[in-house]
Design brief:
The chain is mostly helical. The chain has 20 helices and 2 strands. It has one domain. The protein is globular and about 70 Å long.
Amino acid sequence: MRLPTRFSARLGLIAAAAFALRAVWALAITPDSLTHQGDPRFFHLAANLLADGHGFIAPLPFLDHGSVLATSEHPPGWPALLAVVSGLGGTSYSVHQLVGCAVGAGVVGCAGLLGRRIGGQRAGLIAAAIAALYPVYVAIDGSLMSEPPYALGVGLCLLAALRAAESPTFRRAALLGLAIGLTALVRTEALGFLVLLLVAVRRPKQIAVMWAVALVVIAPWCIRNSTTFHQTMLISSEDGPVVAGANCAPTYHGIDTGYWRADCVGLRAQPNPAVRSRALRKQGVRYARSHAGRVPAVLGVRLLRTFGIWQPRRHVYFAEGRKMPGRTVAVVCAWLVMLAGAAGAWMLRGQRIVLVLLAPLALAVVTTLLAFGYPRFRYAADLGLIVLAGYAAARRRSALSRT
């Protein structure tokens, strides 16, 4: 059988293979590894309730005793996407896992398109192949976490940013703003791209267009939160619990230094999530100020955790609600991707595209410093590194072929 020669056909085959690998891994090889706890359970149940017409409500109070409580715990993007599938009859965990696998295949496609844009077809296909086989992606894509759709949104943001950088127009600035707004509805930290991707849209009027479109996209959800909970709120109320859980005694000393602890998050009886988030945020900031001398060390450990250097086997191959073997392989692959990505960035040094592709990495660093250390924060940032790694590999192969 002859392989297709067109880039689009080859990329499609790699993405299809990536979906098959993720589906087999999630449903056949490690089907019992998903514990149906934490965020995966929330997204699954919230999607089904949304499809049934209950709106965005907290799943467990409704299922336990019929209480209808509006929720702002997570952004609405991932549950809304799963709800579309639920509305078509796909309400099981397995079907929702397959949606995650399909989204992961979409990330592979973005890697290929980004690679082609910066280094040609060979770089694109190599980048797609790396993303398809990357163990961290294979594991998390079927876990029902929000990282896969977030990475897909980041990939679309990067593609839009590269197009805007090549030919700055109002239309391309608007498309970038649209991509950022939609991605922020999956993970709030994507709002950071409104600043980090200014390198792609540098003219004041186009920047205004980008920001305006992003604001229009997120405004309905922000208005819904603010009016529902009678407090000014952006996309979610999870910032308070994050800050409180990351700034307490167990995360400033001992084995969990630089990490997050659920037992540091109180006020669980507070029914208004906006009020609770504000109080918990103040609690965490107050603790950090009271222990300012310890903050630099904690921040350093947070970064080491996110980049798989501190307690690497504990975290790199772990998604909330899922714990699987093979962590050593995943740790090594993550380090190799970072090294190869650094090589690609060096080869492209001085070009604006490097700043665009490294924007997710910069955002992961900022998120880690403000929140806590966890390789999940680097999931989307790995996409830019994979693309740069594909470019470096393609350049290396071209150099060898000339000798």
